[in-house]
Amino acid sequence: MWSELSIEKKEKYKLLITNFASLSRVFSQKSSESNDNDITPIINSKFQETAFQKAFDALSEDIANTSFDASIKLDNDKKYLIGIKSFGYTTGYQKIAQFKSDSAYDDWSTLLSNIKMNVKNLEHNEANKLNKDLYKNLATKVANLRNARIASSKAQIKGFNGAGVNIDSIYHVLMPFKNKNQPQILVGQISYLPIDINHIKIIKNEKNNRHPQNFEFTDGQHNYRYTSSDSQLLMDFKNKEIVLETWDINYHDDPFYFFENLHLFNILQGNKTASIQIKSNDTTIIDSVCWMIPNKLGKLEESSGYNAFDGSTKLGKEDRKVSITQIQTKYKNKISTQELDFTVNQLKSILLKDWRGKSKIKERKELRTNLITFIRQIKNKELLEDIENLVFRSSTEMYIPIPDSKQFHTQKPNFFGKDIGTFLSDGKTLALPTTTERKFKLEFIPSGNVIEAYINQEAGKSIQSITNQDILGKWILWEVFQLKERELLTLDKLNDIGINGIRLTKFKDETRGIGLEFIWIDEENPPQDAIGWVAKNKKDA
Fold first, then answer.
1. Contact (CB, 8 A) for 446 and 59
2. What is the DSSP letter of 210?
3. Are 269 and 415 in a shared domain?
4. For residue range 387-410, what is the model confidence (pLDDT) as tens digits?
5. Of 330, 361, 391, which closes a domain?
6. Quick check: 277 pLDDT over 90?
7. Would 280 be classed as within a structural domain?
8. Rg of the Cα trace of the chain?
9. pLDDT in tens, 146-164
């Protein structure tokens, strides 16, 4: 990637970073650091990210658990997802992911306990032999989660219109180096790859007797280390092998004087203070909201929203009877009489009985699951497809639910467009009667894909696609959320991929419509634009 970026933009980035690092004396705290040769150049990670975005016109990526920090689209339509890192040139393994919530609900703790007990109670060679398989089992679990997060992130930047779009991922690294003759920052780059599960090999480590739950493994591409106490995955960045450029740092003679007089810059510039409004109308944000995808109990509705496909068929009762008769006729001579009788009786029970109430709906779903299991055992692909189409909705049916939608629309009736969020006197029915009147452009960030969407259902609780429902369902459910067909979206799955929230962005440029991106929200410290149940945890700004 680095070689593909323009020289002009790289020089701008270099200037931003080296100028910041030239002030490193200000951050020197040790009395022993009496001269420049004792001071390591300072790189602030947040400044590094924003400097990278500014210099290369990169988009920020708010995908916390994958460490993708930015994305770049090159002139040839090639896109890069970038993990931005900074660490000392002489340091070792670096953190690249964390899996606390995943290790809590899965059987990771059992594996780790068995590893520890083997080391404690068995001879060294025997313990190593038994633990090798346990380590590999755990490494595979880590790899599956890591890979799902990477795949989800790539799907988001690729978008649902991404056929032919080339997506690559890379780590961009800045490594400060306290050279005895000249302080430096070394620029490095290394591939950001999914873990090759088929080539995982545990690296023997004789020091593991003290902390046997920590181990190292390789996939032939990179070396990794897993630490159990905080469930972190670290990677060997091979610091000395990845250097592409070396930047000399010349420390400012009196950095404190610089900070003392920084206010004079504003006077010289006519008191023009920094503001996000400096951006062009195309990117200026005038409003935004975000919310948690699961409810306050950590649950997702089973038959609505992202799991709308799990609801019962929309066919009327008479049409259901006709469909059952058609199944009976079509497969009369294709499966046994016993198999057909059982299938028809189950269909009549599932489709024709009254299943009102949560407990009854649960019972109906259990019957449906049992029927599908039975049909799979018959091993008739056409029959399975017909039955699934009859007892389920489309496997890609979904909508994006808005939490506390009535309150949201009441407070922001024009967020999606003029009067789209207004209601009739009953306070539930949307005032604008037609889909056309309630439609707006929905832009998926960072892919830039745009669809026509509209607000629908009681109290305007859903965002739905007008023309791309099937495409949108496949992309969000199967690629962004990494679900299998007809797999329910759950809190565990959201934790797996590192997504638990949505942000909607309203731009000053009305031609852009509304931006949507999938994000990670810290429940204990949610963003100031959070709505829904998590908004109660917001700290005072």
1. yes
2. T
3. no
4. 999 999 999 999 999 999 999 999
5. 391
6. no
7. no
8. 28
9. 999 999 988 888 888 776 6
